[in-house]
From TrEMBL:
SMART domains: DEXDc, HELICc. Residues 440-465, 534-621 are annotated as: Disordered. Keywords: ATP-binding, Helicase, Hydrolase, Nucleotide-binding. Residues 443-456, 534-608 have a biased composition (Basic and acidic residues). Residues 2-30 form the DEAD-box RNA helicase Q domain. This is RNA helicase. Coiled coil: none annotated. Residues 34-205 form the Helicase ATP-binding domain. InterPro entries: DbpA/CsdA_RNA-bd_dom, DEAD/DEAH_box_helicase_dom, DEAD/DEAH_RhlB, DEAD_box_RNA_helicases, Helicase_ATP-bd, Helicase_C-like, Nucleotide-bd_a/b_plait_sf, P-loop_NTPase. A motif (Q motif) lies at residues 2-30. It comes from Flavobacterium palustre. GO terms for molecular function: helicase activity.
């Protein structure tokens, strides 16, 4: 018997749960479901985003309503159209083996008459945004005077968005005897006020600590000069080739501008903000869900509804005005038990805010340095090699092989590999050769948190940086890899530092005195039957700085050029992940016509916005 069966759920729901693939209830589900099924009670449930609140109220509400009665029996209020549609969709999935249950979504930006018609056909459950609901009540298009259940989902978000009056008005037209279930990630005063006003003796459930961040999200900040913000963003994207992220800006204008720049520079990015039409926003979200967009640049308001699993990074391009908002932003990643990273790009004057956020989320930030050009090149190069290795061959290609073999005849395997990699890589390395180090110095926090607890002298002394062909794919994170290395190499507590784990490979530092030992031992070790390969990286991983706080590593390779902070990407390298037909990015026509040479050969993306018929990037779970 699985744990869902112990909660008192009906057969039809249990069947649907199997289809959903849920194996065990989440904590909020385990607490809320039996309570709501057994009792007619009001409820206040506090739980972070991504903890499974929809099912926590969705299963009980479906089980409790009377499917034979066509009256509206439950009203679910949620902050955005996106969420409304998601909840509706989920409820339909939950109730698929339950005959006669109708769930109707009611939200702005779509035909009100059509929604009214759907309701008239008999909707036992209405999922609505407060604004549109109020509108429908005013026009007499809906009757909620008989409801038994009212659910306020993401109550804090709704109040944040200024729906207080609407909510009060809506609740006033519902019967006093109904039960109200309030779900929220945080408990600000306004939410408490609604609770007091409209609930009697509510049961309370708290999952995790109030207001605290999710345990599956780690928090990092990167200190830069204000003029380098955008360059930093690009480097972070380049250092994470599989990034699937939401990038937050403060204003609509910045959101639009940054997205445009990214597109121009060859990234698969798109903007999401309130100045877009509903159809445009839908298109963007569809493409994001389909992973045709890797970087969704969004305002806080527009991103509220986003519930996309497997987001790898949330990037705070600018910190929010209200630091409480940080929690909502970072909750877009680390969902459903997956790990996620929330990154903040800060300038020195904003460092204070990092400490304030730490107090709110009750978690520490790890201070990291923006990867240097060389480190990024290495990451991309290994990523490319891994990708070549993992690529499945489409045998359509067989027809062309004789001709291709003719052309390449006489090249040895080694030469061929070098040339193949160079095709993609040369232009990329040329770009990064010219760039300078952009990590700002001067944080007093360098020795705090995460793996930056490196011995101080290494920041000046010069450490050896290695890369090694094991990574998160081998189930390492930076802590476990550090432990593994220390143990394998028989090194002391702080001898291995700046461990940076990527998917198929990782970087780490040691003092130069250990270099021989590392190379000797590690190159002769096997991990689950696979030979470990370690090499000395050209990059020193921020371990060495000159007086300007610049990474001397950047200068070794060709001179740096001032005044060239955000040169356009030359596109070539990026084609390894962005070239259609696999994927339709949102790259502007201009940037794609700029792309040249071999990466031009393949037919490219269709021009339409968010066409999901295009093949997609493989999902990485
Ligand atoms: P919240 O409303 O708390 O932000 P959601 O209800 O949107 O969270 O759930 C987040 C994700 O977790 C969704 O993709 C959902 O399908 C998934 N999920 C919910 N409950 C479970 C469960 N018991 N087991 C596995 N996945 C779940
Ligand atoms: Mg939710």
């Amino acid at each position: 018997m699985n744990k869902f069966e112990q909660l008192g759920l009906s057969e039809s729901l249990l069947k649907a749960i199997i289809d959903l693939g849920f194996e065990n209830p989440s904590e909020v589900q385990e607490k809320a479901i039996p309570l709501l099924l057994e009792k007619d009670t009001d409820l206040v449930a506090l739980a972070q985003t991504g903890t499974g609140k929809t099912a926590a109220f969705g299963f009980p509400v479906i089980q409790k309503i009377d499917a034979d009665n066509r009256n509206t029996q439950a009203l679910i209020l949620s902050p955005t159209r996106e969420l409304c549609l998601q909840i509706t969709n989920e409820l339909k999935n939950y109730s698929k083996y339950e005959k006669g249950i109708n769930v109707v979504a009611v939200y702005g930006g779509a035909s009100i008459t059509e929604q009214a018609r759907d309701i008239k056909r008999g909707a036992q459950i209405i999922v609505a945004t407060p604004g549109r609901m109020q509108d429908m009540i005013n026009r007499g298009l809906v009757n909620i005077t008989q409801i038994n259940y009212c659910i306020l989902d993401e109550a804090d978000e709704m109040l944040n968005m200024g729906f207080y009056d609407d909510i009060v008005n809506i609740l006033s037209t519902t019967p006093d005897e109904k039960n109200t279930w309030l779900f929220s990630a945080t408990m600000p005063a306004e939410v408490a006020r609604i609770g007091k006003q409209f609930m009697s003796n509510p049961e309370e459930i708290t999952v995790g600590t109030k207001n605290s961040g999710s345990a599956t999200v780690s928090h990092e900040f990167y200190l830069v000069n204000a003029r380098d913000r955008y360059e930093a963003l690009k480097r972070l994207a380049d250092a994470n080739p599989d990034i699937f992220s939401v990038v937050f800006c403060r204003t609509k204008r910045d959101t639009q501008a940054i997205a445009e720049k990214l597109i121009e520079d060859g990234y698969s990015a798109a903007a999401l903000h309130g100045d877009l039409s509903q159809a445009q926003r839908d298109g963007v979200m569809k493409s994001f869900r389909g992973r045709q967009i890797q970087m969704l640049v969004a305002t806080d308001v527009a991103a509220r509804g986003i519930d996309v699993d497997n987001v790898t990074h949330v990037v705070n391009y600018q910190l929010p005005d209200e630091i409480e908002t940080y929690n909502h932003r970072s909750g877009r990643t680390g969902r459903a038990g997956k790990l996620g990273t929330s990154i903040v790009i800060v300038t020195k004057s904003e460092l204070r805010k990092i400490s304030s956020i730490e107090r709110i989320i009750k978690q520490k930030f790890e201070e990291k340095t923006i990867p240097s050009g060389i480190e990024i090149c290495e990451i991309q190069l290994l990523h490319l090699a891994n990708k070549i290795k993992d690529t499945e061959v489409d045998h359509e290609i067989d027809n062309y092989l004789p001709a291709i073999n003719d052309v390449l005849e006489g090249l040895s395997k080694e030469e061929l590999i070098k040339k193949m990699v160079s095709v993609e890589f040369n232009r990329f390395i040329n770009y990064y050769k010219k760039t300078r180090d952009i990590s700002a110095s001067g944080s007093e926090r360098r020795d705090r948190g995460g793996d930056d607890r490196a011995p101080r002298e290494n920041n000046n002394g010069g450490a050896t940086r290695y890369f090694v062909n094991i990574g998160s794919r081998d189930n390492f994170d930076w802590m476990s890899l550090k432990d593994y290395l220390k143990e394998t190499l028989d090194l002391g507590r702080d001898d291995v530092f700046k461990v940076d784990v990527k998917e198929g490979f990782s970087f780490f530092n040691t003092d130069p005195e250990h270099t021989d030992k590392v190379m000797d031992i590690l190159n002769n070790v096997q991990l689950e039957g696979r030979r470990i390969n370690v090499e000395i990286s050209k990059n020193d991983g921020g371990g060495r700085r000159d007086h300007n706080g610049r990474n001397s590593g950047g200068r070794r390779e060709g001179g740096r050029r001032e005044g060239n902070f955000a040169p356009r990407r030359e596109g070539g390298f990026r084609s390894d992940r962005n070239a259609a037909p696999r994927e339709g990015g949102f790259r502007g026509e201009r940037s794609s016509s700029r792309r040249e040479g071999s990466s031009e050969r393949a037919p490219r993306r269709s021009e339409s916005f968010g066409d999901s018929s295009r093949p997609r990037r493989p999902r990485r779970d």
